[in-house]
């Protein structure tokens, strides 16, 4: 049995690939031929239009950007052709080229496929488009049969005299076109009532009939002032004289406007919910199937959220149907307000909705989505003159662990929603218990962080930095801790990411700088503070920091901001501009964790750095790894050539400190010198170090 018969029902269809890149055409051809399709190729739009008329492919897969004739113009030409006007056209366009997608649909495209092409999804799209085209073709054939029956009954007949261009209209056609009297009409005058883009097709229809071609038919849109947006179907035959010369054309006209509108309504109702305008279960199932096909290739998870909102159940017994409908529309709008553009929301039935969340990299994305849903309904729902309180219950199933097909995911998310309804108020439940526990723990942590900022649960610990040449303590680094009730002191790796993703990092970051400046202001030490990516992206970071420094009376030259390489890599030009702005205000800049990211010597030269911090992993292996020792030594030498101070993190013992001194490293920091301490214990440590230094000449001396 061939691959075509096993993989694709109704395979063997001819597909025209149009792309000016030969490699792209070859790759698409291989994929489609593996599924049993017969492939025709064209390298530009002009050739594609000609092949559509000559070969009549069942589907066209066409790039939008091509020489000679681009994909938009080619699509319009295909749509104007009688032989290929209904051929499905899938346009190839870049993922983020929204304008190209819009122009493609305006040109008559059926759908689009994004570049780079998802090869697993390509065959699904082609098969779906062919299946839809087959259904539409069957519908058109039924319509043609009906039109021919009306032609036999001479419905709205007409006759065009070829010698003088007079058009004789039947009473039915005069009524249809709102023409006065029974006198023949000038054909050119009536041509002005035809939509401009359809006039060439109508003239071509007349030419074909004059040439004696059988089955000559055309559908045109009337676009004049008397007949806006009405569709007319014409069929005709030539009347010949005794010499065989055509003298007139007689035919039948039919107004197909209602049929066109009915087709549009049928298509809409087949895929959308009439009340809310959201996709219905049928379209949602198709989108989930598409997401599953894409996920198979990318190995990224997606989630199906089964949602109900209890406001309807509580109000429908006491309000009219019209009011219930308005409430339901308000619920749909509230749900739409919290979804991302690439996600899908549908109405399953009644007050039950479903949401498809794609491209899940981490559990935080699911937690964020469910949190947004619950938070959205914490605010009363305005409907007419009322404000209604509503509870939302969310059940979550995740592909592939909770199901690998549409029905299973909907079933399991529905079961999880039933569990969510057992709770009081708005709630969320995951089908998998382990996932449920992890996400609920994260949501609880988010809430606790909000409260922790309000209640003053955060505190700062300070780790000294020692000049390795003199042994003097020259500065400290401020490190954030969270004294969470019931959990004890939490280290940053337990909550920094959540602060970053929720946006709380902005308030927390301001608090860190303000608190640390006030604490260290009267000590003869410099202060280093970490800056997160979200803080760094603030458009007025420099102004924000200077305002805090002015309020606390802390000199800008004593403040050092530590940024990671990743911040610079993500937007190098923007990062360099921001760093120069900060340095211009007198604030020192340190590059943190050097060696763990995309290290670049060229980048070091561009950045206005005062300090570079070598990551602790290199420092802790100095004694055991000759390679790491060589890297540390060469980094120090390079930085000194660039007039950059070097801080070695992770100094654990005297041996590492001795090696770093021999490498001429400037500053040491680590547990071997002093662990991070609250302010009071830091001051005590500084005092005891002073006494020890005076008594025994200790190598570590407070500044």
UniProtKB/TrEMBL annotation:
The entry's keywords: Phosphoprotein
Record-linked NCBIfam families: GGDEF
KW Membrane (keyword) present: no
Modified residues (4-aspartylphosphate): 63
Domain Response regulatory: 14-130
InterPro entries given in the database record: Biofilm_reg_signaling (IPR052155), CheY-like_superfamily (IPR011006), EAL_dom (IPR001633), EAL_sf (IPR035919), GGDEF_dom (IPR000160), Nucleotide_cyclase (IPR029787), PAS (IPR000014), PAS-assoc_C (IPR000700)
Record's keyword annotation contains 4Fe-4S: no
PAC domain ranges (all copies): 216-268
Identification of the protein by name: Diguanylate cyclase (GGDEF)-like protein
PROSITE patterns xref list: EAL (PS50883), GGDEF (PS50887), PAC (PS50113), RESPONSE_REGULATORY (PS50110)
GGDEF domain boundaries: 300-433
Organism: Sphaerotilus uruguayifluvii
All residue ranges annotated as the EAL domain in the record: 442-690
């Amino acid at each position: 049995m061939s691959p075509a018969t096993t993989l694709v029902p109704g395979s063997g269809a001819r597909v025209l690939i149009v792309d000016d890149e030969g490699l792209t055409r070859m790759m698409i051809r291989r994929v489609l031929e593996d599924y049993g399709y017969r492939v025709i190729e064209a390298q530009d739009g002009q050739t594609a239009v000609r092949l559509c008329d000559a070969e009549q492919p069942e589907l066209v897969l066409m790039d939008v950007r091509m020489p000679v004739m681009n994909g938009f113009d080619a699509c319009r030409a295909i749509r104007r052709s009688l032989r290929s006007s209904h051929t499905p056209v899938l346009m190839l366009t870049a993922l983020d080229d929204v304008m190209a997608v819009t122009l493609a649909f305006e040109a008559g495209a059926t759908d689009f496929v994004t570049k780079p092409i998802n090869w697993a999804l390509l065959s699904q799209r082609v098969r779906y488009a062919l299946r839809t085209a087959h259904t539409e073709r069957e519908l058109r054939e039924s319509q043609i049969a009906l039109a021919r029956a009306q032609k036999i009954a001479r419905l709205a007949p007409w006759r065009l005299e070829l010698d003088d261009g007079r058009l004789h209209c039947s009473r039915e056609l005069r009524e249809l076109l709102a023409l006065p009297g029974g006198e023949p009409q000038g054909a050119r005058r009536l041509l002005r009532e035809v939509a401009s883009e359809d006039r060439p097709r109508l003239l071509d229809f007349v030419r074909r009939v004059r040439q004696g071609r059988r089955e000559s038919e055309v559908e045109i849109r009337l676009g004049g002032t008397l007949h806006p947006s009405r569709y007319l179907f014409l069929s005709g035959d030539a009347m010949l004289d005794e010499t065989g010369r055509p003298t007139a054309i007689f035919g039948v006209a039919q107004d197909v406007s209602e049929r066109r509108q009915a087709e549009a309504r049928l298509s809409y109702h087949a895929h959308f919910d009439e009340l809310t305008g959201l996709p219905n279960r049928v379209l949602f199932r198709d989108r989930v199937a598409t997401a599953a096909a894409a996920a198979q290739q990318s190995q990224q998870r997606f989630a199906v959220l089964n949602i109900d909102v209890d406001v309807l159940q509580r109000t429908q017994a006491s309000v009219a149907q019209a009011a219930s409908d308005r409430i339901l529309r308000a619920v749909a709008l509230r749900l739409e307000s919290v979804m991302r553009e690439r996600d899908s929301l549908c109405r399953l039935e009644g007050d039950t909705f479903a949401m498809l969340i794609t491209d899940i990299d981490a559990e935080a994305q699911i937690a964020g989505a469910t949190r947004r849903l619950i938070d959205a309904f914490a605010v009363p729902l305005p409907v007419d003159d009322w404000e209604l309180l509503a509870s939302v219950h969310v059940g979550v199933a995740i592909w592939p662990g909770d199901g690998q097909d549409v029905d299973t995911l909907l079933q399991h998310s529905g079961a999880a929603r039933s569990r969510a309804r057992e709770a009081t108020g708005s709630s969320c439940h995951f089908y998998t218990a382990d996932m449920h526990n992890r996400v609920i723990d994260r949501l609880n942590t988010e809430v606790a962080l909000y409260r922790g900022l309000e209640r003053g649960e955060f505190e700062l610990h300070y780790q000294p930095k020692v000049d390795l040449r003199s042994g003097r303590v020259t500065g400290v680094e401020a490190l954030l801790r969270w004294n969470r009730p019931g959990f004890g002191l939490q280290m940053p790796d337990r909550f920094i990411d959540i602060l970053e993703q929720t946006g709380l990092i902005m308030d927390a970051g301001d608090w860190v700088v303000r608190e640390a400046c006030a604490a260290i202001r009267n000590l003869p030490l410099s202060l280093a503070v970490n800056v997160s990516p979200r803080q760094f992206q603030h458009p007025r970071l420099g102004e924000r920091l200077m305002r805090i420094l002015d309020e606390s009376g802390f000199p800008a030259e004593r403040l050092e901001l530590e940024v990671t390489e990743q911040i610079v890599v993500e937007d190098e030009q923007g990062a360099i501009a921001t760093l120069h702005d900060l340095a211009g205000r007198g604030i020192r800049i340190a590059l943190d964790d050097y060696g763990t990211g995309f290290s670049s010597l060229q980048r070091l030269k561009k950045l206005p750095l005062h300090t570079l911090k070598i990551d602790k992993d290199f420092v802790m292996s100095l004694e055991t790894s000759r390679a790491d020792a060589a890297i540390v030594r060469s980094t120090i030498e390079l930085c000194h050539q660039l007039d950059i101070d070097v801080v070695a993190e992770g100094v654990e013992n005297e041996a590492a400190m001795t090696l770093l001194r021999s490498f001429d490293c400037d500053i040491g920091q680590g547990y071997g010198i002093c662990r991070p301490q609250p302010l009071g214990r830091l001051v005590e440590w500084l005092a005891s170090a002073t006494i020890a230094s005076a008594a025994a000449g200790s190598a570590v001396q407070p500044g």
